[in-house]
Write a structure and sequence with these properties.
Helix content is 40%, strand content 20%. By secondary structure, the protein is α/β, with parallel strands linked by helices.
C-alpha cells in the first residue's frame, strides 16, 4: 500500500512542496525577521528573551539542527552523538549558556514518543544547563511541534524534569565602545510559506504534511539539502542583517556554517588571495590544501564575497555525515566558529574561525548604507 500511494502521490507532493516551501521569499523573510526582532525587544515573552551580558564575561554556545531521531537507519544524528555529548560536557563544565537553535528533534520523520525513547542521553546532557536559566530552546521548522502543540510543555518536562520555555528567538545584548550591540539568534526558517505561516498552516505541516512525506519516503528540497536553496537562503539572511543597525544575526537551518557572512570556503579563498598578495608561498600552499580538503562540503562561492559586511553567522549543524558537528561560541568577547569531531576514542574541539566582537563592530561601523 505504501509503495502504491507513493507512486501515485509522488509528483503532486513534490509540486506542492516546490510551490509552498522551496523558494525563499525576500519580502516574507525580511518582514518575518523584523517582526520577530521587534516583538522580542518589546517584551513579548512568548516570542523570545533579551539576555544582557558583559562583553568579557558572557559565555554562549549555539548549536542547531541536531535532527535527533530514533536511532534507526534514517537518524542523521546518531553518528554525531559522541561529539555532541562531549561538547555539552565541556560547555556545561565551563559555565556556558547553551542556545539550542532549532530542529533539535526530527519530528517530521519521527513521533515524539520514538525520539524520547531513543535520545535520553542527549536530554540529560542538555538538562545540565537548566540551573541558572542557562538553557535556551528555540524551535525550528522540523520541531515546529514545540510551538504549536498544547502538550509541548508536558512532553519537555518529561525529559528535562522541569518546565522549559520554548522561544522563536533570543537577543544577546552587550556594550561595545559605549554602543549597545545585539546578537539576534533564531532558527532561520522565517519566510517559509508553510511552516512560518499562520496557526493553521503550522498545524497542518507538523501534523499532516510532514507525517505524509515521512510515510511516503519523499524528501523534497529544503535549504539543508539543496545547494541552490542554501545559497539563496544565506544570501537573504545576509541582506537583512546588513540593513540592521548595531546588530549581528545568527541562524541555523541550512546546515552550512557561515562566519562573518562568509562560508568557511569563502574565507579560505580570501585568505589565499591575501597570502598570494604577500607572496607567502608556504601559507598559500597550506590554504590550498585546506580548500581541497573541504571543497566538497562548501562548494558555493558568492560572487561578491570580498565586499560582504560581517553581519551574518550560521551555526551549521550537528548531523554532518562524517560525525562532525559545528557551532558558534561567544566567550571572552570573541565569536568563534568551532568544530567538534571524534578521532579514535577522543573528541576534539577545533576553532575554524574567530574574531573579537570589537573588531566585528568596527567592521559594520564602516558602512554608510547597505550595498546589497
Amino acid at each position: 500500500m505504501q509503495q502504491f500511494l507513493r507512486r501515485i502521490l509522488l509528483k503532486p507532493v513534490l509540486r506542492l512542496s516546490a510551490k509552498y516551501s522551496s523558494h525563499p521569499d525576500r519580502n516574507r523573510i525580511f518582514a518575518a525577521l523584523s517582526d520577530l526582532l521587534s516583538r522580542i525587544l518589546n517584551g513579548v515573552e512568548k516570542k523570545g528573551r533579551v539576555i544582557p551580558f558583559e562583553l568579557d564575561k558572557g559565555k554562549f554556545i549555539i548549536f542547531s539542527d541536531q535532527h535527533k531521531g530514533t536511532r534507526n537507519g534514517a537518524d542523521d544524528f546518531a553518528i554525531c552523538e559522541a561529539a555532541y555529548l562531549a561538547a555539552l560536557d565541556h560547555y556545561a563544565a565551563a559555565g556556558f549558556h547553551y542556545i539550542a537553535l532549532g530542529d533539535s528533534e526530527e519530528l517530521w520523520e519521527n513521533t515524539w514518543t520514538g525520539v524520547k525513547a531513543a535520545q535520553q542521553p542527549s536530554f540529560d546532557k542538555e538538562k545540565a544547563f537548566i540551573p541558572g536559566g542557562a538553557f535556551i530552546k528555540i524551535f525550528g521548522n522540523h520541531d515546529l511541534m514545540w510551538d504549536n502543540d498544547p502538550l509541548a510543555p508536558v512532553y519537555l518536562k518529561s525529559v528535562y524534569g522541569e518546565s522549559v520555555p520554548i522561544y522563536e528567538g533570543v537577543v544577546l545584548e552587550t556594550t561595545v565602545a559605549g554602543r549597545t550591540i545585539r546578537i539576534f539568534c533564531t532558527h532561520g526558517h522565517q519566510g517559509d510559506e508553510v511552516s512560518d505561516g499562520n496557526w493553521f498552516s503550522k498545524f497542518f505541516v507538523s501534523k499532516v504534511w510532514a507525517p505524509l512525506q515521512a510515510y511516503l519516503k519523499i524528501n523534497p528540497n529544503t535549504p539543508a539539502y539543496d545547494a541552490n536553496l542554501k545559497t539563496a537562503h544565506n544570501t537573504l539572511m545576509y541582506e537583512w542583517s546588513a540593513r540592521q543597525a548595531d546588530l549581528f544575526l545568527i541562524t541555523g537551518h541550512t546546515h552550512q556554517p557561515v562566519f562573518e557572512s562568509l562560508t568557511h570556503m569563502e574565507r579560505l579563498y580570501r585568505q589565499l588571495l591575501f597570502a598570494r598578495k604577500q607572496q607567502d608561498e608556504s601559507m598559500a600552499q597550506t590554504i590550498e590544501a585546506e580548500i581541497r580538503k573541504r571543497q566538497f562540503a562548501f562548494d558555493n562561492i558568492s560572487h561578491d564575497y570580498l565586499a560582504m559586511l560581517p553581519t551574518y553567522f550560521n551555526s551549521g549543524c550537528c548531523c554532518f555525515d562524517d560525525g562532525q558537528i559545528s557551532g558558534i561560541e561567544i566567550s571572552e568577547g570573541v565569536l568563534r566558529l568551532v568544530e567538534w569531531k571524534q578521532k579514535g576514542t577522543d573528541v576534539m574541539r577545533i576553532v575554524l574561525e574567530e574574531s573579537p566582537l570589537t573588531e566585528l563592530v568596527e567592521g559594520i561601523s564602516k558602512k554608510t548604507s547597505p550595498s546589497v
